[in-house]
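Blinded run. Sample ID left blank on purpose so nobody reads anything into the name before looking at the predicted structure. Input follows.
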Amino acid sequence: MKTRTVTVREGEFLGPVDRDYDHTQHNAVNADHARRGWETILKMNDDPEGWRYCPSGFSTFEVLHVGMWDGWPFWRPTPAIGYIGPLGSVEWAFFYNVQPHKVTQVKP
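Blinded prediction complete.
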């Protein structure tokens, strides 16, 4: 008989955006893009109700979480939003993909 140990990683939402997070570590590809995403997610964090995210330019999805996500691919707390994706489950978009033209706030 063989016995083995298996490690399973599960991401988790850790709460509001950490304003001390060094967002400039993501500047390698496009610093301006990362800066705009950082400003947008901070705005969403300050008033987290009623946001919709449009990742593709066609459909918008309800944002459920705005804050720090500790999961794939970084496996350390990184600012992100959690939204209901097209398959009905929560999907995550990191702050550098949360550009001003991709989010709208719908107030009742």
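Unblinding after everyone has recorded impressions. Strands lie at 12-13, 51-53, 61-70, 78-84, 90-94, 103-105.
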